[in-house]
Amino acid sequence: MHMECLYASNAATLGNVDWKTILNCVNLVTIVSVTLGVGGIIVGVLGWRASLRGLRESADARAREKTAQDSANAARQELLLQRAAEDFRIIVENVEELADRVAAADWLKVRALLPPLKMRFSEANGSFQKILKGIDMDKLDVAIRSVKTLAKVIPAGGAEVPIETFQAMILQCDRISELVGEIYGKLKYLKAEEVQ
Amino acid sequence: MSTDLGGVFKEFIGYDDPKEIELVEKITEKTRMGKIVWEGTSSSLVATAPGMQLSFVRSSVANSFVSRLIGEWEIFSVRSQQGVEILKVEQPSSLAYFGIPLESMPTPRSKLLEAVDALYSVANSRGKSDIDKALNVIKNL
């Protein structure tokens, strides 16, 4: 065939054109071109499909990774909340004990209870900034202020406490107790998704 | 006391930001008009305005005679929906609550504190008006 084409071109050069042979050669070239073209299209389509599948798989993988990361974050947040609630339970217990001791006018014990309670409150104030929001943070502020004010009026030594002061101290303890109780209640049932 | 200069400093020099006072007064006005509705619990009063959360933490002496000396609320705050503090006003600490006499003349309440006092009074009474409405409904049964 190739030889025939060669001859044909020679013949054309010589002015003796063999049209039949030339048309045969053109057909051959066309068939080969079309076959190559179709093959190219098939390869292209297959490649395109493969790349699509790859893209889809990588998107799926990214989604799976994000889900796993979200679950890990949620689990971490849940753990943080549990720890926060546990820390706050200790504060609630300390406040209850303080209220009991104030009611019993056991000032020595009250004096001993106040420093660790103030320290726990300070820790809570620092560590709960991301957990407690809005009014709960205000309630914590008020509880801390109330404990500090209470500390100022605890009598030194065996000093007598006027009855109005004593009643006010008991009320103040009730208020601190109420506020920390509310925050503890909130923390216990707070869900991870509610915390940023 | 609030955002810009820091509470103690502002309280010390008696400075009140006129815009803060205006904000509180506007909230009071809208509360009176019934456009801001407050919900009360034993320890707090909360309300929402578009894009804002408003709250009071009540004092333990609310409604008692001592409240005239130290106020019926402890903290008033305005926060954005995202929880960013816009305004926070705290009651100055006082031992008057414990029946301990003041060593000197009580310092006059700042204009901002007075504005917040007025707001608390209106917000608290709006809460009570719900009881009045409920009472009327029951009476008219």
Question: Any descriptors?
Answer:
heterodimer, A: 196 residues, mainly alpha, 5 helices, 84% helix, rod-shaped, B: alpha+beta, five-stranded antiparallel β-sheet, 5 strands, 39% helix, 21% strand
Summarize the structure.
The complex is a heterodimer of chains A (196) and B (141). Chain A is mostly helical and 196 residues long. Chain A contains 5 helices and no strands.
Care to describe what's here?
The complex is a heterodimer of chains A (196) and B (141). By secondary structure, chain A is mainly alpha-helical. Chain A has a domain of 121 residues: Four Helix Bundle (Hemerythrin (Met), subunit A). Helices cover 84% and strands 0% of the residues of chain A. Chain A has 5 helices and no strands. Chain B has 141 residues and is of the alpha+beta class. Helix content of chain B is 39%, strand content 21%. The longest helix of chain B is centred in the last third of the chain and has 29 residues. Chain B starts with 6 loop residues before the first helix and ends with a helix. The N terminus of chain B is likely disordered. The interface between A and B is medium-sized, with 25 and 23 residues.
